[in-house]
Amino acid sequence: MNQKTFSDWRIEAAVMQIEGRAFIDGAPRHASTEKTFPCVSPIDGRVLARVAACGEADVDAAVATARRAFETQSWAGMNPRDRKAVLLRWAALIREHRDELALLETLDTGKPIGDTTAIDVPAAVQCIEWYAEAIDKVGGEVVPADHHLVGLVTREPVGVVAAVVPWNFPLLMAAWKFAPALAVGNSVILKPSEKSPLTAVRIAQLAHEAGFPPGVFNVVPGGAEPGRLLALHHGVDCIAFTGSTRTGKAIMECAAKSNLKRVWLELGGKSPNIVLPDCPDLDRAAKAAADAIFFNMGEVCTAGSRLLVHRDIKDAFIAKVVAAARAYEPGHPLDPAVTMGAIVDRIQFERVLAYIEAGRREGRLVTGGAPVREETGGFYLQPTVFEVKPDATIAREEIFGPVLSVIEFDNVDDAVRIANDTEYGLAAAVWSGDLTTAHEVARRLRAGTVWINGYGEGGGEMSFPFGGYKQSGNGRDKSLHAFDKYTELKSTIVRLR
Ligand code: NAD
Predict the structure, then answer these.
(1) pTM
(2) Counting CB atoms within 10 angstroms of each CB, which of 186, 295, 370, 375 has the fewest?
(3) How far is the CA of 247 from the centre of ligand 1 (A)?
């Protein structure tokens, strides 16, 4: 339970010293060109810090030190329990600095402080702890083979892993990648989004304090350029990316053009939330539908951005969703009572506004649709609900903002067809009082995660794999399956005679 008040957080924010340097080879560094970019808070448009704009020389330096750490086995060669101890120390340090990191994340992204203290930072800590604990529990195989042979299958770290991540959950999305990658012995280069670089830089310093050997964990802030350079680099063995489908495709091309590094992609979504007429609890479903699109300002890859409602209950259900949306009144993100903060930056704000305009042309605006708190210099939007046809632009394209498209359907087949008629396949949900129907629909939904009579549950459980079908990506974050991405399988065959 966080006891700090709005005024406490504002005072802390005003006096905070913010680090903007990259972290390479165990030390903070300016970009070799000395170039920086301004890190602007979407809360009020204030410049928080100038951050190193890493370029080719910095990426080369990060790759070289990461490679050296891997070749010398300074990390991969440690006993598993010693690697575990370092990761657990790091997790403990991040927990100790929870308020500082939550404040950085809120200032940088506009996320409510109540969320960054209760979700973003603790979930990242839990993720690191979970993979640390797994280090000495996951072994290889001794496989059945001819009698004169001993067959071993072992997992080895892939080498140098680049993690390129987005801005919506900067610390957590990064942790989903670096925690399993480091646990199995890789060196990591983290490239945070230019919209949210601050927590990455800070946790690198804490990693150093926790005892990682130099070069094992590096951070190279900047925009697309360092990301592209990592994707093209011959010294990178694997690139794990979370972000847009467009960038994911570009990264895959870079890998194909260079060294065929392994490419793992967690991409966009346009997730359907289907409410059948026998939904067991319409009030709970309406609240869940609102949370699914308005939590984190809709900047969630699994946002339930398409609400598919049966014609018989549509009008009553929309009224309940509109009522539930009132819980998301935009306010100052440092106020612990606020549940809806600012949109991450002007570019994203204008992008969402353009979709709202498209929604006005193609559908019926039910509620919201306007900017608010403009006098603050920040980027705030009302929670917005449209009723549209399935082929409307806002029902097809990922908006990544607080805009819900409600779509009517006639029967279960119709609902499944509309739900699956998308290039994405990240998540989906179905609400029904009949478990047979619900399971049958769940099976037919082409998505990596499906909820029955809920939305978003299990998000905090590390045991569920997370990822997409179709153009929502490949591979899975979270769970032991994530180790598949950061290890090579080796068969060792011993001839006894
Ligand atoms: P983005 O693709 O614009 O950027 C993601 C990262 O890639 C950033 O660090 C960016 O600097 C970098 N980048 C940009 N161009 C690059 C290039 N050509 N080569 C290499 N790197 C490049 O995405 P975003 O706007 O930061 O994030 C929003 C997107 O992320 C949404 O589409 C959302 O659905 C997706 N997302 C997916 C998941 C998931 O797990 N599936 C989670 C969160 C966000």
Answers:
(1) 0.98
(2) 375
(3) 6
